[in-house]
Design brief:
12 helices, eight-stranded mixed sheet, single chain, alpha/beta
Length: 375
């Protein structure tokens, strides 16, 4: 660290019942070739020995009398990583912020690679296109045997550090087309950039990562894409997203988050002239978020009677103060759907006409060119 004990990077880790993995996560940070960091673990009311394991690492993270590991215990479980991440962000002192999940790990040179790139290009935001995927019982020590994974088919992966265009419209279109990761752990953020622009995770049950990354991508002056593969993401069967919940909780979590998110997006993008001049950019963002959550929405329709679902959705709608953005989006989406439906119907009619014409031509050939048709 510097003489003022200001670390170069603050690693923020939200944690809940991760006793099986948190040790490996911390070991991967201890093994870094770049040691100018602090680690902030925010325990979200774990009921296992996760916190005790973190405490056992305190001495290992103490260097030259400086304690580089801080454990923050929350009194109330927030239900997801939003509040713990914001808690860590508010007390972080590093020049840059790197988010990790408590069951994941990073490569030995991860922080060194990202920090060097950030300083060289004076980046506000660094985006990594690929990562390593760990199965539930995989060891992070064997990451060199793994092949890099791209989070989506459209994700942008570069061959060398590339400063992305400052054109907001291009960034939004790329975001809407799924060319950027929407997970905060595949980015490095300059801390002052986040705090100066008041970029924190929103109070959403789902979709908080996408909103956070979208705000950062829109605000960043220097947005850097890098080819570095430094993160190891673990797939777990007991993930919160995989657990069954009662219908009323499900609707509140997914529908409620979608409704609230549209209002948050509307409020944020109204600060940019580009969205006022190009309304289609607004719907690109709404469409991405709605499509991302739709697969989860549809599951409930096969499990809950229509009258019960109607009541649950109405309850969520009543809690939205400004419904203008939602109404405009749904009206626009309905009309786009109808236009697409008409286009598909016209295409089907054209194809049917072509098929009939081909059948008539074939019949003429079969009857020696005479204009005779089978009954």
């Amino acid at each position: 660290m510097t003489e003022k004990n200001i670390p170069a990077i603050s690693v923020i880790i939200p944690m809940y019942n991760a006793e099986k993995y948190i040790g490996e996560c911390l070991d991967s940070i201890l093994a870094q070739t770049f040691q100018d960091f602090e680690v902030i673990v925010v325990d979200n009311c774990s009921t296992d020995d996760s916190a005790k394991i973190v405490e056992s690492y305190a001495e290992k993270f103490t260097s030259g009398g400086v304690e580089r590991l801080k454990l923050v215990r929350r009194d109330v479980n927030s239900g997801n990583a939003t509040v713990p991440r914001n808690t860590g962000l508010k007390i972080a002192r590093g020049e840059y912020i790197f988010f990790m999940d408590s069951d994941d790990a990073i490569t030995k040179t991860a922080l060194e690679e990202l920090f060097k790139a950030a300083k060289k290009f004076q980046a506000d935001l660094i985006h990594c296109g690929a990562f390593f995927r760990l199965l539930e019982n995989d060891s992070a020590k064997n990451y060199k045997k793994l092949n890099p994974v791209i989070g989506g088919k459209n994700i942008t992966v570069v061959k060398e550090p590339t400063v992305f265009s400052g054109d907001l419209a291009e960034r939004v279109r790329n975001f809407g087309n799924g060319k950027f990761n929407t997970t905060p752990w595949n980015y490095l953020f300059r801390r002052d950039f986040l705090t100066d622009n008041n970029i924190f995770f929103p109070d959403l049950k789902h979709g908080e990562d996408e909103f956070f990354d979208f705000c950062a991508i829109c605000r960043a002056k220097n947005f850097l894409l890098v080819p570095n593969v430094v993160y190891m993401y673990r797939i777990r069967q007991d993930s919160m997203n995989r657990q069954a919940v009662p219908p009323e909780n499900y609707v509140h979590d997914w529908f409620g988050s979608t409704l609230k998110a549209i209002s948050l997006y509307e409020k944020f993008i109204n600060n940019f002239d580009a969205f006022q001049k190009n309304p289609e950019l607004k719907y690109i963002v709404f469409e991405l978020f709605a499509n991302h959550n739709t697969t989860h929405h549809l599951q409930i329709y096969t499990q809950v009677p229509a009258f019960q679902l109607d009541a649950l959705i109405r309850r969520e709608l009543e809690q939205i103060e400004d419904k203008t953005a939602l109404a405009a989006f749904l009206f626009n989406r309905m009309n786009v759907f109808n236009v697409n439906l008409l286009q598909q119907q016209n295409l089907i009619r054209q194809q049917q006409a072509q098929i009939q014409q081909l059948q008539q031509n074939q019949n003429k050939i079969n009857f020696g060119g005479e204009d005779v048709f089978k009954l």
